Amino acid sequence: MMIECVPNFSEGARPGVIEAIVARVRAESGVRVLDLQSDASHNRSVLTLAGDAESLLRGVLALVGACVTTIDLRTQRGEHPRMGAVDVVPFIPLEGATIADCVSLARRAGEAIAKAHNIPVFLYEDAASAPHRKGLEDIRRGQFEGLATKLKDPLWRPDFGPVEPHPSFGAVVVGARMPLIAFNVNLATDDVEIAKKIAKGIRHSTGGYRFVKAMGLIVDINGRKVAQVSMNMTDFTKTPLFRVVETIRNEAARHGVAIAGSEIVGLVPAQALVDAAEHYLQLTGFTSSQVLETRLRTE
Amino acid sequence: MMIECVPNFSEGARPGVIEAIVARVRAESGVRVLDLQSDASHNRSVLTLAGDAESLLRGVLALVGACVTTIDLRTQRGEHPRMGAVDVVPFIPLEGATIADCVSLARRAGEAIAKAHNIPVFLYEDAASAPHRKGLEDIRRGQFEGLATKLKDPLWRPDFGPVEPHPSFGAVVVGARMPLIAFNVNLATDDVEIAKKIAKGIRHSTGGYRFVKAMGLIVDINGRKVAQVSMNMTDFTKTPLFRVVETIRNEAARHGVAIAGSEIVGLVPAQALVDAAEHYLQLTGFTSSQVLETRLRTE
């Protein structure tokens, strides 16, 4: 059973500190560190880990232990909103694991973190204990600075741990979700309004596809301003990449604009790309057991 | 180092015989049997194996040993042309292996087969000892029945083994090639001439893409006659599926016909589908190290 864990922690500027934190995670046997992305202006890092449930539990506890001593939100500042020195810990099912396995693991991890360090823990997404607490943005609203007040609200009683913030660490959000794909589509225009209109049409919150979060923004590519539809695909198995791309293509054409290119940021499950190929190549009767590498893994 | 081997042997009608043959292969440690396809009217089976070089060498020798005692081409008849009780043994590079590794393995296997059973062996494709001996169809022309005569021709001196056919087994063709994808495109028409014209335009032999073999034929799908472009994609890394599909689409449109669907027969390397997704989704800067499962395998 392989599970992925993508903890975000609130240090992205001091390389030595980041390295020391990650080293504590690497030291846990069975934890594989697949990726590390740090952003100095966000002052935030994103770790991608994989392993079985027990290894990840140890890895996450090691991460929290390292951050509790090296990150102090009373002085930490950055572009990215944060509530905790470790801000969010999602568990994601991979080969042989289910979302239910990840929900169980999230609850165990949440309880263990609260116990070990007296840190308030909120469960989110598929592990959430109430509907209003599913979304990360909703839980994190108010950030570290607003935490003391928020924790007093009965709607925001933590799932584990004390009703006071940890004085330097804050609080942490732990949960389970399907793999998320960070996917951007660049339009052949510098008109950001077109990207914003398109984003409004495809994101769930304003009437679009169920498992799409999107916004339109201007990015700089090789010195040129490019309008971009920036997305988080929150369940590619239900809302596939190809359907959204074709909708963007259609909506952009209505504005006389083509898709210039697209990009996937970070990791993408092979299945998302296989599904796209199956769609565009018009395959019939195709199953992923026909993928050689899948057959090698499972036979 | 993982290598694939796809031996074809000349029994497809007697399930008990097929099972006994495959059991001898399975008994070799380190050999993974990924797939078995048998066709009674062809009277032929296709085995898909994977393993390291040493395991596959033992597996192929076990296969030849089993077929030498159970298949007799003097009485075997079927739709598919054949020269040997084991007809062809291609080795194909997978993870961590190169085509050169497979050429070496083909030579070792050819020599071992000849030695063990006094069977003439021809090397083909990337292992071929002369240009006119690269193609399987050219080597096999004349089949089992024409072998005695063919072997006397200096152009067809075997690479290993005697200058006489094995009396019941015949001869075997052994070699190395890139993964082959059996890929069919069904057109929304029953006019086979359209499929034949399109096939002629896309296959290498008559002016088309370098790594495409194709023919147009009529198939029966749920009782309806459908014109099909049936292809072997002989190096998808050089001539990708998506380019050929789009050419077929364009050529079919010139005849007022659409692509109804397509199918992949058997196994396909994930990379071929990832390449298609990358093309259709217009991804930029994408590398296969961004595929989660690849990252898990290599990190």
What does this structure look like?
Two copies of one chain form a homodimer. Helices cover 34% and strands 24% of the residues of chain A. With 299 residues, the first copy, chain A, is α+β, with helices and mostly antiparallel strands. In chain A, the strands form two sheets. In chain A, strands 1, 2, 3, 4, 5, 6 and 7 form a seven-stranded mixed sheet that branches. In chain A, α1 (15-26) packs antiparallel against α2 (53-70) and α2 packs parallel to α3. The mean pLDDT of chain A is 96.
Key terms:
299 residues, alpha+beta, seven-stranded mixed sheet, four-stranded antiparallel sheet, 11 strands, 34% helix, globular
